[in-house]
Design brief:
23 strands, 10-stranded mixed sheet, alpha+beta, 12 helices, 447 residues
């Protein structure tokens, strides 16, 4: 149900014809979309059963047939794709990420946009994915693990604390700000039920604070993308306009996005110059939900600020022994110890002391007295290893493994289990069977 106050405002902004077209969208089925994850494989297996059609503005973005239910397929467990609303794929694309850069996703949960950025970095550079809410941050970390993203530091910090620590540190910063969620009314009944004009005003104040913190972390010459999934001018053009008036070293970049509508400076009082270069995604103009984004560029040209790096750890003998026994590879980088476990750090990982860290890179495992207990995250990063048990995705063996059961296999010791060549997790072979080591929280029987 559309809130009356929202409808009244949108009738004024869009006019009678625009409002009728906008309101009619509520009778249209929602477009289901996903993003293929190239971190898993360059050429995916046959996905004809999904009925894929490209999302025009998103590399590797596709609409799919909802009847195919891709979230229940083993390819989803393997991280081959991430289910993501099509319009929500736009902000990460506007960020213009290049391999090797330092990137911050400041409000990152549940992880769709961070997964996009990690794929664009292609295993290089550093991605810091932050989420203030600890529960949502845990979901973020799990999703990035499933996608096989290695070079990611996952934090749960307030933006103000990060701004004090990482001034001028990042090439790119994404702020997909918490908002009143007007663009999600069709997907989330709670968003419509909880909406009020007071909520819009509260969100705009909070968004301004977050944006100011984010700006402090962008190097001269860097780019900051601000986005919301709401239509409210107060949260969109209004927030960006107020920001530009107090940050004259930032300006809105023009973007090539013929699918989107321009920003509306005429919808706010005393607009800052350039707001028409922001973009709006309207559900009655494209196949997606509502979104707003502005690509902000900081004047100047300087390298990112230098910070002390997290010290490297010595290589424990258990790691090369494990690799020799299984044929498992380790990404390039330096090892660090954290929370009693062994991790492969992203390039240039900053010192972690004082930060609320959920994940400081790729978890390799826990060194014990005479062995290494491998981490699930390492399995999800691997493409294959010497000890691999591969099953067809639609096989009984794959279903049994995902349910936490033992599966047949002749390898001894730690073995990577894959479905159509896509990693699912570890098992341990003995006596012709593979004992399941898929984490209990990921097993289908436990869902």
């Amino acid at each position: 149900m559309i809130p009356e106050g929202f409808a009244r405002r949108m009738r004024v902004l869009l006019g009678s014809d625009g409002w009728r077209a906008f309101a009619a969208v509520s009778d249209r089925p929602r477009a289901a979309a996903l993003r293929l994850n190239r971190l898993k494989c360059a050429v995916p297996p046959d996905l004809g059963f999904l009925g894929l059609r490209p999302v025009p503005w998103a590399a590797d973005g596709y609409y799919y047939d909802p009847a195919a239910r891709p979230g229940l397929h083993p390819y989803h467990d393997a991280g081959l794709y991430y289910l993501q609303e099509a319009s929500a794929m736009a902000p990460a694309g506007l960020l213009d990420v290049k391999p090797g850069q330092r990137v911050l996703d400041l409000c990152a949960a549940p992880g769709g946009k961070s997964g996009q950025i990690a794929a664009l970095l292609a295993g290089t550079g550093l991605l810091v994915s932050n989420e203030l809410n600890p529960r949502r941050a845990a979901v973020l970390a799990r999703n990035l693990e499933r996608l096989g993203a290695a070079g990611v530091l996952v934090l749960s910090e307030h933006p103000r604390r990060l701004a004090g620590r990482f001034a001028g540190y990042f090439d790119r910063v994404l702020v997909d700000a918490p908002c009143s969620g007007e663009g999600m009314f069709r997907r989330e009944e709670a968003a419509a039920r909880d909406w009020s004009e007071g909520t819009v005003a509260m969100c705009a104040r909070r968004q301004g604070e977050i944006l100011r913190s984010a700006a402090a972390m962008v190097r001269p010459g860097g780019r900051l993308v601000y986005s919301t999934c709401t239509f409210a001018p107060e949260e969109d053009e209004g927030v960006v306009s107020d920001f530009l008036k107090t940050h004259p070293d930032f300006s809105i970049a023009a973007v090539e996005a013929p699918w989107f509508e321009p920003g509306r400076p005429d919808w706010i009082a005393d607009p800052a110059p350039g707001l028409e270069r922001a973009v709006r995604l309207w559900p009655h103009r494209l196949l997606g939900e509502g979104h707003f984004a502005a690509a902000l560029v900081r004047a100047g040209d300087a390298p990112p600020a230098a910070l002390p790096e997290e010290p490297a750890a010595d290589v424990p003998p258990q790691l090369p022994d494990f690799c020799a026994r299984t044929g498992a590879a380790v990404p390039e980088g330096r090892l660090i110890g954290f929370a009693g476990r062994l991790w492969l750090a992203p390039a240039g990982l900053p010192a972690l002391a004082g930060l609320k860290v959920l994940r400081p890179g790729l978890e390799l495992g826990e060194p014990r007295k005479d062995r290494l207990e491998p981490a699930h995250a390492w399995a999800m990063w691997l493409k294959a290893c010497g000890n691999t048990a591969d099953f067809p995705a639609d096989s009984r063996e794959t279903a049994a493994y995902l349910a936490g059961e033992t599966v047949p296999g002749g390898a001894r010791g730690w073995t990577l289990v894959t479905a159509d060549g896509l990693s699912l997790g570890w098992a341990k072979g003995s006596g012709g069977v593979l004992k399941n080591h898929l984490p209990k929280g990921l097993r289908r029987a436990g869902r």
